[in-house]
Amino acid sequence: MKDLAVRLEALDADAGAALRVIAYFDSLTESRAGLQAIVRGAAVLAGVPARLDDAERRVHVRITPAGVSEASAEPADTGWPRTEIGARAVLALERTGEPGPVDAMILERAAGAARAVLDRTRGRAPAEDPALVELIVDAAAPLSVREVAARKLGLDGPVRAAARPAGPLVLPAGAAVPPGRIGLGPAVPVADLPASYAAARVALRFAADGTDDDPGPPVVAYESLGGLALLAAAPLPEAIPDLDALAHAMASAPWALATLQAFADTASLRAAATALRLHHSTLQDRIIHLEHLLGWPTRTTAGKLRLQIALALRRLARHP
């Protein structure tokens, strides 16, 4: 499919781009990606913020072209290119004017992928009632009491606890994740929700605000951390030389933190340049300058690992 898209793009740029869109969202559907990944794909491919609003399920996902989840208090403009998903959900691109052929293809394919997710999780909205949710993730509460609370919340299958700055949440396994900074625990039977919530709280410490001061993924699953989760259990000393080096780089260049985060999160310099919307040669110059400021090479395997650990420690210090 990729080779065909390249050959077709040489003949017709729009046709080649449309084929890439089809392949991208087909891949997301096959991998059973969630709504965040689908809306993120629409935003990155279209180059404008994309949003999915499902009033019935109280699901609102908005992603910027940089791939960052960013909630908006403003309702979607009815003049934006949009497509309906079922009776209540709407996927829109925050762009004025008629959609071009590529935008139309993005909306069609992203809507199809999102519809599959919504059908898969239909009737499985996040459990609410904060008091009951706090009860069923409380390890000190008797199991019989937590089971009664779970029945009142309509929870009867595998579920996962989510930790947010505002408090705990319980999500049926496979349900869409609400926007915002969230740590996710593993999917477990209802009886094991306290353990899932403990893991979710660890994951929350690694989740970013998604701001200039704290770039990075706002949603972190505990399972994705692996051995990195052990860092959260270790007391942080007052002085960490690599954090001092990061602070020095950030003070010297306002783009330093976002650049280093994108470089640490991606597999290659070119992928980081795409995420930052920079030419790769510009990013390479920045990385060379930042290596001088940090005092260690970041383009070696060991140097990149050191950078990733430094960024993780910075986030743990920021979110104790």
TrEMBL record:
The protein's name in its UniProt record: PucR-like helix-turn-helix protein
InterPro entries reported for this sequence: CdaR-like_regulators, PucR_C-HTH_dom, PucR_C-HTH_sf
Domain called PucR C-terminal helix-turn-helix: residue spans: 257-312
Gene3D superfamilies: PucR C-terminal helix-turn-helix domain
